[in-house]
Amino acid sequence: MPNPQQPLLTKESVALSLAPPRSPPGGDVIRNLYADPHLSAARLFSKLTSEAAAGNNSDENHSDYNISSYESHNLKRRFVQLLHDGNRVLHYSIHPHIPTSLSLPDQLIRFLGRALPLEWQHRNRDNGTFRLVADGLVKLTCPMIGLSNLRLTHKFIELSSSKRRGRIKYGHYHRMQYIDLFLPQRNDTKQQNKTQTKNNHKSSTGKVPVRGTLFFVHGGAWGSGHPWMYRLVAPTFLERNFAVAIVGYRTYPDAPSIDDQVDDIRLAYNELDEMLNECVVPVADDYDATDREGDSNNGWVGNIMMGHSSGAHIALLLLVDMISERMRSSPSSLASTVENNRYPWSLPDYFVGLSGPYDISYHFDFEAGRGVEQISPMKPICGHSRSNFDKSSPAKRLLSRLASFRENNGLQHVPMLLVHGIEDATVPFTATSDASRILKSCGWNDCNEIYLDRTGHQDVIMHFMLQNGSALDAVFNWLHERQQKLIGQEGNRRIVLQSRL
Fold first, then answer.
1. pTM of structure
2. pLDDT tens digits, residue range 216-229?
3. What number of H helices and E strands is found in the chain?
4. Pick from 103, 112, 97: which is nearest to 141 by CA?
5. Which of 44, 80, 212, 476 could crosslink 301 through cysteines, CB 3.0-4.6 Å?
6. What pLDDT, in 10s, does the model give residues 368-393?
7. DSSP assignment of 307-327, as one string?
């Protein structure tokens, strides 16, 4: 249960949310601060004090600034209290890559955060009304996107056909617990050569030969989103002869805690592992090495776990749990479970995180600076307190697990790529750099970061949907480099691989 006496917003956390490069990009108060960087502390304090007093009810005591001002839902009161306490963090220059404008959805969310009473915000956040609104806004934008790109509309309709899309139920068969599975077909793949054409036919076992599998976890701020909204991620990978699984899971409030969402992804991973063993086969197991010699575009790549935004956070939590369980086990039991292909001992070959908020405590400060921390499902689903926020942060969870192991078998990590747009106004790019720093300190040495200029939060995933963009190029170039390195190490030896998620 949350401790009502524990203040989440303090002098330190409010100052952190405003400090470059973490400072939020918009909001009338912050814009005023950056509009006149030479404004003295005295003038600024006087200006904001008068504005805060004018905006409050007449029965409030405006001169009473104390710790409760940080907890106030009035952003101006937070700033005034910060200046009153003598903190000069606001006088540093803004980070050059922080966005200076806000998208329409971000403006709408901030307006609701300012205009709606907290009791109303909490009630509609916790009963699922805000989820309906968020999903409804996505549905309203779909026709506009479709009219602007008829090719994508045709592809979306094709993928929605029951002949192309396999619906796999898992868990307790909740309406949100399902996987949309897509297998490559002959017309998906760009047939560039004889080998590519050959790989599009079924193998002698009747299974579809694939170069790997994409296990994709969608975002939606932990409280919205469905697999169909991300269906256009599939064609990019289908063209490259990957099987694609887009995972649905319970969102808040149907999933009351972050661990419930992680458990859903775990169950989906297990269900998909069994399903793929029945219908696909790796190309390395089905064709001779001579078919792939010198052609890195047709060989086995591996199984990729990828998530966007909150989906990247949930997926990385699952991966940390899987790795922790491997480390906790004895070598003999580990060998036995690997031999029997028992989940969760089969780790993915790669992890790709796109624009993820990996430190919940830090992201709460960022949301508080934007004035949306009460609307967002993040606070309730991650446990209401700073200690629970840390437990819900993947890098900090791994750090805690390592400290608790008296003896372990070493950190058995997978190659990781974290991609983030520098002009992300929803999750700042420093979320990726901070998480990477902690992961590397834990021994996760194969953790790579790529930062994309002139790229926002939604741009990253849209690059995959539109099949064009710097995020897509960055991911596939990284995979290509990894594959080239593997081919160079193995030479002409035949590689025997098993298809495991």
1. 0.77
2. 999 999 999 999 99
3. 23, 10
4. 103
5. 212
6. 777 788 889 999 999 999 999 999 99
7. EETHHHHHHHHHHHHHHHHHH
